[in-house]
């Protein structure tokens, strides 16, 4: 009998399929490896949750079509509610279950190559001290995002997709400060010399399992077959299946199912011969992080009553004494407000413009599926609202979800994350002038750039990009209109944090007091308002770094007596 083994085409997937092949052929069977490209492989966008099931379902489709006899999967990628016609034939003996975090710097003493040859672990507390303030964490795993952000609210989550080698390359080229990867995959790739010398030299730490439980099924390889072929392939099951791995993984998956989760669920749980160790984030963890609030993980063990777990975290809203000196902000950022209040800096959000998407203006995103994904277009997002509008448009323009998103700065990157489609690139720019420099230095001119704009935006930014050789598609994606605000007491010794020229003009239009100190989000805003009469008596400064930390630094230096 010739057994056709279906697998994805990545180096890691081929390693797994080859392992299955070797075990089967050792027992006298002939085999053939069939490489299949999944729908999940046809995307480089940030929303992994919509694609995870596609990694396995495409292979299982081939089982249904009888193009292959068995399909080889990473167990952690298999949905808990797999279709009835497909069954799990076997679990191979489980490999390592730990996660490893890699940093974008060389360290001979702590390099990846040495780490993979020893068993040392590092506490999450120590790893947090290594991660820079406002650092970018590259991962598309909801579990890894939720666990890390529960300790470090300042971190910016960045989508890192594709093959392990591709993710490591994004780290090497400084797109992110750190990435988290499964140890099992790294070890398997090293064993077949698929990790570059640069990758093996990166500073790396094995995260302590006590602080960081694994994803259900991580490190295990499973083999699927059709339900009606299960008895026929019983001999294959006897060859391949490890009973302890099967027991442990099935228990982990059962817990995940009972909690109502899937592959992209904020839970880590590992069974070691029936002994459960796990943690889970609250269901509203993303909202809490995005609004600047902290949250804690809840421990799970074999004695836990899963039905009684309280998976919602409530937040006490801070109030403001309007009679004291404060920051008044047109950014309307709940995150910034909560973060500043938590360190004792009073702030009030006063939105003075209304932003509304124009769905009918959004173009179809053109992708040549036959081309390399590195040639696909990029969506450039210049504001948090542009990010929100893009996320709202995904259902009507599904290709939006398949391409990379470049966020102008931390606020826009966090907005992408809040609306569940993390940016692939955060440019660290404060305004369009800085963004232009970033794009010209970092983005190939072969790329088509899609740029949604406000109806009030000038064409200067787009024209400059076209002038230096970029193909740009831009459109009026949302309207920007001034709104009337209720009369709020603002004192001259308050601080005005202004988000844009249009906010400044609406502020004046509402007849609101302009304080003596004005902080701008970028040079363009500063240049615009300096010529306005209402601002001529104010000292105008530009924030030259991460908004929260720079405001704190400025407040403590200038405003604390």
**CATH class label of the largest domain:** Alpha Beta
Sheet with most strands: strand arrangement: 16-21-20-17-18-19
Please identify, by name, the CATH architecture of the largest domain: 3-Layer(aba) Sandwich
| CATH level 4 superfamily of the largest domain | Periplasmic binding protein-like II
Reported by name, the CATH topology of the largest domain is D-Maltodextrin-Binding Protein, domain 2
- Poorly predicted parts: none
- Integer count of domains: 4
Distance between the termini: 84 Å
**What percent of residues are in strands?**
15-25%
**What does the average pLDDT come to?**
90
- Radius of gyration, CA atoms, in whole angstroms: 26 Å
**Helix segment tally:** 19
Largest sheet: 6 strands, mixed
Structural category is alpha/beta
Q: How does the overall form come out from the CA principal axes?
A: elongated
Number of extended strands: 24
Question: What portion of residues is helical?
Answer: 25-40%
Question: What's the helix and strand layout?
Answer:
Layout (H helix, E strand, L loop, with lengths): L1 E7 L2 H16 L3 E7 L12 H16 L5 E5 L11 E6 L7 E8 L5 H4 L8 H7 L5 E3 L3 H10 L4 E3 L5 H9 L5 E5 H9 L5 H4 L1 E5 L14 E6 L7 H7 L2 H16 L8 E6 L2 E6 L4 H6 L7 E4 L25 E3 L4 H9 L4 E3 L3 E5 L20 E4 L2 H10 L10 E4 L2 H9 L6 E2 L5 H11 L5 E7 L5 H8 L3 E12 L12 E4 L2 H9 L7 E4 L2 H7 L9 E4 L4 H13 L2
Parallel strand pairs: 1-2, 1-3, 6-7, 6-8, 14-15, 14-22, 17-18, 17-20, 18-19, 20-21, 22-23, 23-24
Antiparallel strand pairs: 3-10, 4-10, 5-8, 5-9, 11-12, 12-13, 16-21
Helix pairs in contact: 13-14
């Amino acid at each position: 009998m010739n057994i056709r083994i279906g697998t994805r085409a990545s180096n890691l997937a081929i390693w797994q399929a080859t392992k299955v092949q070797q075990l089967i052929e050792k027992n006298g069977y002939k085999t053939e490896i069939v490489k299949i490209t999944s729908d999940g492989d046809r995307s480089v966008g940030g929303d992994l949750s919509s694609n995870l099931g596609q990694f396995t379902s495409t292979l299982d489709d081939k089982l249904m079509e009888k193009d292959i006899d068995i399909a080889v999967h990473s167990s952690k990628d298999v949905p808990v509610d797999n279709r009835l016609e497909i069954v799990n034939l076997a679990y191979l003996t489980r490999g390592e279950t730990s996660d490893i975090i890699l940093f974008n710097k060389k360290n001979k003493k702590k390099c990846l190559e040495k780490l993979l040859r020893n068993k040392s672990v590092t506490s999450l507390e120590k790893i947090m001290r290594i991660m820079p303030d406002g650092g970018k964490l590259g991962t598309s795993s909801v579990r890894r995002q939720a666990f890390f952000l529960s300790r470090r609210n300042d971190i910016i989550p960045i989508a890192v997709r594709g093959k392990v080698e591709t993710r490591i390359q994004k780290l090497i080229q400084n797109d992110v400060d750190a990435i988290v990867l499964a140890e099992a995959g790294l070890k398997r790739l090293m064993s077949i010399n698929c990790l570059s010398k640069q990758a093996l030299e990166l500073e790396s730490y094995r995260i302590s399992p006590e602080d960081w439980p694994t994803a259900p099924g991580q490190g295990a390889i499973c083999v699927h077959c059709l339900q009606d072929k299960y008895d026929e392939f019983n001999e294959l099951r006897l060859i391949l299946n490890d009973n302890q791995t099967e027991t442990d993984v099935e228990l982990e998956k059962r817990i995940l199912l009972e909690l109502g989760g899937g592959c992209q669920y904020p839970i880590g749980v590992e069974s070691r011969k029936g002994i459960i160790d796990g943690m889970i984030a609250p269901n509203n963890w993303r909202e809490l992080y995005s609004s600047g609030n902290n949250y804690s993980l809840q421990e799970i063990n074999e004695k836990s009553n899963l039905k009684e777990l309280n998976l919602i975290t409530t937040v006490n809203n801070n109030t403001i004494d309007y009679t004291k000196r404060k920051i008044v902000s047109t950014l309307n950022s709940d995150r910034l407000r909560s973060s500043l209040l938590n360190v004792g800096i009073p702030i009030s959000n006063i939105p003075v413009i209304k932003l509304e998407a124009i769905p009918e203006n959004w173009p179809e995103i053109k992708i040549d599926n036959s081309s390399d994904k590195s040639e696909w277009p990029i969506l450039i997002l210049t504001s948090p609202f542009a990010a929100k509008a893009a996320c709202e448009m995904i259902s009507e323009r599904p290709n939006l979800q398949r391409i990379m998103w470049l966020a102008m700065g931390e606020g826009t990157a966090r907005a992408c994350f809040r609306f569940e489609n993390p940016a692939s690139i955060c440019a660290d720019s404060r305004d369009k002038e800085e963004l232009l420099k970033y794009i010209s230095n970092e983005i190939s001119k072969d790329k088509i750039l899609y740029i949604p704009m406000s109806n009030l935006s000038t064409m200067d930014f787009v024209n400059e990009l076209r002038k230096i050789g970029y193909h740009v598609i831009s459109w009026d994606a949302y309207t920007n209109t001034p709104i009337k605000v209720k009369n709020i007491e603002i004192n001259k010794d308050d601080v005005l944090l202004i988000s844009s020229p249009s906010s400044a003009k609406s502020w004046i239009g509402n007849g609101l007091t302009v304080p003596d100190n004005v902080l701008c989000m970028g040079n363009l805003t500063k240049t615009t308002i300096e010529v306005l009469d209402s601002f001529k008596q104010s000292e105008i400064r530009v924030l030259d770094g991460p908004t929260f930390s720079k405001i704190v630094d400025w407040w403590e230096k200038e405003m604390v007596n």
